[in-house]
Amino acid sequence: MKGGSRQGQSSTRGSSAGTGRSVTLVTNKYGVRPPQNGSLATQLQPSQAEFSGRTPGPVVACARGSRPSSPLWRTVVQRGQSVIVKSTDYVASASDEGVLRLPGRTELEPQMVTSVFGYARNLLEKYHVGRVIGAGSFGVVRECVEKATGRVNAVKTIPKVPKRGLPTPRYLLKLRTEVEIMQQLGYSLDAVNLRDVFEDNDAIHLVMELCEGGALLERIEAHKYSEKYIARLTRSILRFISQCHAKGIIYRDVKPDNFLFLRHDDESPLKATDFGLSIRHWPDEPKLTSRSGTPAYMAPELVLQSYDEKCDIWSVGMLTYQLLTGRFPFWEDVRSQTLSDVWKAILTQDVNWNAPELKQLSPSAVDLLKRLLQRDPAMRPSAFVALEHPWLSEDGRARDLPLQGSVVQRLQRFSTFGHLKQLVLKMIVDEIQDEGKQGKAPASRKARAALGNLQDLFNEIDTDSSGAITLEELSAGLRRQGYVLADNEIENLMRRVDFDHNGTVDLSEFITTLMDWDQVQGEQGWQVYLDHAFRKMDHDGDGYISLDELLAQLPPLRPAPGVGSLAQVVSGAAAALGFSRGYDGDAERLAEAKLMLREADINGDGKISREEFFDLLKESHAPDSLSFYDDRLSITSDGRASAVMGQQNRQAAAKL
């Protein structure tokens, strides 16, 4: 379905015969016909002995940096070899209650899922919900207007009871995963922004940025575009996939329907949407086995049910081939193919690199396609490496942008951190600032040095010298520097930078957001800051941060009339982080604390150990480079970034 778009495509769901694995069978031009005999070709499915009647094996330790292993692995035999794989793809936490803790395939009655997630239940109080603008197999998308601002959004409604069959704990966990991943990645300018989440007895409702420019393939089919333009789109898609992989997320559904244009003009940014098949998985964890995605874009290893994040790279290759040539590498029209035919071609058929449609492309474009469509995932580049391919930098963009051009990238990267991580980083900035005020020797010299440089940059944007940056000042400052952003995009970034939601950004918030944390983490003093933060949150000193201790970091409910302003009620680091918006009920507040707990509780025991806490704040398990995020700098005819800044600001930014 087309979340956030005015237009939708229908799709249906099916299962691969003999395995019960869910796959997406889309009915548009890049879909497939179901198998005529109702079963898959035998050579495309594992033996029944491998995928039926299994019992979970013993707990297997899994190296994941310093992360504790999860008791969710098992050993299976695949193609004659013993392989460690994940036992399940969606996992409940010990802090979850009720139906989410039941076995994943348990069939639930509709009355058992009326109140599950703890999301706010007042959608119609905040929004006018209007006409249907899209529909799909999982629900509908409607236009909605925020009553307080008049902003037009889209609201995607997903039923808690699927169209076919009864809900299960696994289905509910899948819905929650979709919401949480969109909450995390939606502040990237390469993804549709999720503004609000609600639930009622029957459904969840995702209020998101409205993309009016249509889906990717619709635009490409309507006009003839240059390789340069396709390269820009491919770079945007790979940036988004890089962001996913840096956060331990596999997208699993790269296809044209899931990338939308914000506007109708050719300069419109492209945004990823629909995280319904996304899953959390780190590169060094055991392989995944659940077959999920759109068949024509599935990687060979996903068809064979033993895969990792490299499956997304193959899908990008299939999509890029389609954008450049107007067809797939294996089929002129995939709609005429059965599911068995599609998977057999993916597994066995060679790409004809001498095909007529490829003769029209540059050698560099063909070279990238060859790399992305390597059948062996070990030979495929990572998203990070693929972004460095010459074809993606031959569109006039300078390879090395000036450092002052990284502000928007830093804003995005920080915004995609989880709330717990943001809270701890804010606590660390407060401690660094206190060290300076008290004349103490800094635990991190790089952090202390960065404070002065960021202060200079802050002063350049704070034009009225009030000590706080307003939305108008941030907007004007970014545009003076040559950034190209829509008004709503600047507002979305402001929401994440303005931690206390008072309408301005103070110096502490500014520093927390723009600090180069990777450099600070490389110093020995980093451990000192983490230890202090852990002790502050571990109130009872038992060596763990509990759900109750996380709740203590959150503000109370909204004060009753006459009690005073919320700012008078809220105090401490949580208020500085931005939870001072308050909560409409205990359930919403508890849901926020549980979300923070799941962010670090890797082994699912319902509490955060010191090891898990330190691991959350250490350098990324996968690269999370600024180059993964759209710089949004305008580019001049000579290929240089246009950043119209004062000389003083250039010098300050260059020191960051």
From TrEMBL:
Protein kinase domain residues:
127-392
Q: Which GO terms fall under molecular function for this chain's record?
A: ATP binding; calcium ion binding; protein serine/threonine kinase activity
Q: Which CDD domains match?
A: EFh, STKc_CAMK
Keyword Nucleotide-binding tagged:
yes
Annotated spans, Disordered: 1-22
Signal peptide range equals none
Positions of the EF-hand domain = 449-484, 485-520, 530-560, 588-623
**Composition-biased stretches (Low complexity):** 7-22
- Main location per UniProt? cytoplasm
The source's superkingdom equals Eukaryota
Record-level GO cellular component terms: cytoplasm; organelle
Question: Where would you find this protein in the cell?
Answer: Cytoplasm
Q: Which UniProt keywords apply?
A: ATP-binding, Calcium, Cytoplasm, Kinase, Nucleotide-binding, Repeat, Serine/threonine-protein kinase, Transferase
Q: Does the keyword Nucleotide-binding apply?
A: yes
Quote the PANTHER family the UniProt record gives: SERINE/THREONINE-PROTEIN KINASE (PTHR24349)
- Name of this chain's protein: Uncharacterized protein
Organism from which the protein derives: Pleodorina starrii
Q: What is the lineage of its organism?
A: Eukaryota, Viridiplantae, Chlorophyta, core chlorophytes, Chlorophyceae
Gene that encodes the chain:
PLEST002378
